[in-house]
């Protein structure tokens, strides 16, 4: 058995590494046993039996709060549905291979009775059951939690939310409003490009879709938002906003007690979040690409203006670590940048046992080196077990 695959009852030591600690980085070594970090030490010495990391970076495992990746695996094409259990296993392995050791899998609640192939069917309860069963069986490599994406503009939100209880341990519930002309889709031209490209809609079908969705939003927005806020309290979930665009959106979020804003679309909304003590989360693909694919505010610009707290991989799991490295270049501070994908998201989700390299913390650890500015993973451990 290789030294870096030590049994959970034995101590594994990664030595001669650049350790990313809460207070900065040092050259040193880290030891863990039984899923817990048991020792940190300074120096480049490599004790007998330790793994020589040759100066590689050793950091906490990445914490992902909002990813659509599981949905991509269960529906790899708009008309193709994949069996859920093998999709969950494939999704889990992909995230582990990207250095993500804790994930809040985004599952939509709220269906649309649409026409022309653009309706959304119900799937949340069944998928959650399968995910929870796979987690309980020990089949998964990393730590999975559930993030319910409450689609406000939908037909079945209240009924679907009622299917979940505190026993499901829902970690996050976010308020989504994808009504055409609202928030992320405030620009109907951008929305037309997105919908026509994804679903192949004719102009006539698209216009009918916009009309019916707007009409539905006018009827259900207020009662559905109130029901989702109440559900988060009942479930014990962290409540998040999504795609805040205007200052009024942020003020309403603050009134609900929201402390996490996913992907605000404008500088004004991001600044308002900072004023109200709401953490700002932006997408790693936005950072990597240098801008939003939807024409919204650049995450890079928010980072330069000190308005960025947390990064999410969103729809590209491999972007999370790379985005943190890019942030490290922008800020000139890699430990601060890595905190946006480790400690900050862990704390935002109420997980205080991970996200930092410190004695007594959960042994979620990654080892990587930079090759021409690109992070190349050389090891991933989840609760002390090597998973990639």
UniProtKB/TrEMBL annotation:
GO biological process, one term: organic phosphonate catabolic process
InterPro entries, sorted: Metal-dep_hydrolase_composite, Metal_Hydrolase, Metallo-dep_Hydrolase, PhnM
A GO MF label: hydrolase activity, acting on carbon-nitrogen (but not peptide) bonds
PANTHER family: ALPHA-D-RIBOSE 1-METHYLPHOSPHONATE 5-TRIPHOSPHATE DIPHOSPHATASE
Protein name from the UniProt record: Phosphonate metabolism protein PhnM
